[in-house]
Amino acid sequence: MIKQNLHTHSLFCDGKNSIEEIVNEAIKKNFSILGFSSHGEINVDGVSKIKHADLERYKEEVKMVKDKYKSQINIFLGIEEDVAGERYLEGFDYIIGSCHLLGNMAIDNSKKGFIELFNDKYKGNIYALVKDYFKEISKLCTYKEVDIIGHLDLYSKYNEEEEFFNFSDQKYLSMVYKMVDEIIVSNKIIEINTGAIARGHRKSAYPHKNILEYMAKKNAKIILNSDCHDKDFLDCAYLKTIELLEKIGFKEIMVLTENGFVSKSITEFR
Ligand SMILES: [Zn+2]
Ligand SMILES: [Zn+2]
């Protein structure tokens, strides 16, 4: 069975555990592939990031555990690059491209912060917010180094009860479908991210089921990640999400190997 997570935060940014603690937990939970993806540098206060001075130490520590535990688990060095932050082109096995900010306002730091963004900056207009957010995702699509587009509908983190918009709104969905098409053309992998379930904000993974159905129809490349900030949630909601993906019609999931990304049958993940 394949068990993989390439979206893992540690003490190098806003995660709760050390690199080695997470590796030990992953081995205990029977993971076969684990990738670290510290937040890259970004010049905005109050946003989690790796300190520039720590970057080399981060790389060395991940390489150390990669070698130390190589008989038990395949470990990879990655980074979660924010579109508004520094771009890292060298020395990583893979890069997740994400957008966490609109202007200098964080999308996902707190519900209070999101309400401020939604009400003050966008006057309650979800289409305007999503339009600006997708402009940022479009930029990530042009970055050659980016392999995976992280949490595609992050702006829905606090929308479980559809407080801000309706997940089935056709005008909204047509904007998302266009974005999905663009990501597919740019040959990026779209992340299925269970992080908001671990934090108790959502009951299902990003992207929403309505988006997943379109992605399956279009044969989008996908990867399953937990966006782990706490080792206890390293495989949060994995089985139920795999079941949902299969039911929706996905046949394959991408995995990272020493020779890059390859697709594997979804049946190998359960
Ligand atoms: Zn993120
Ligand atoms: Zn993350």
Kindly summarize this structure in a few lines.
With 270 residues, the protein is of the alpha/beta class.
Explain this structure to me?
The structure is a single chain. This protein has 270 residues and is of the alpha/beta class. It has one domain: Metal-dependent hydrolases (TIM Barrel, Alpha-Beta Barrel), CATH 3.20.20.140. Helices cover 34% and strands 19% of the residues. It is built from 8 helices and 11 strands. It has helices spanning 19-28, 55-68, 111-121, 126-142, 170-185, 195-198, 209-217, 238-248; strands at residues 4-5, 33-39, 74-82, 94-98, 101-102, 105-106, 148-149, 189-193, 222-225, 252-257, 260-265. The strands form 3 sheets. Strands 1-2-3-4-7-8-9 form a 7-stranded parallel beta sheet. A two-stranded antiparallel sheet has the order 5-6. Strand 5 and strand 6 form a beta hairpin. Helix 4 (126-142) packs parallel to helix 5 (170-185) and helix 5 (170-185) packs across helix 7 (209-217). The mean pLDDT is 97. Bound molecules: zinc ion (2 copies). One zinc ion is lined by residues 80, 98, 100, 150-151.
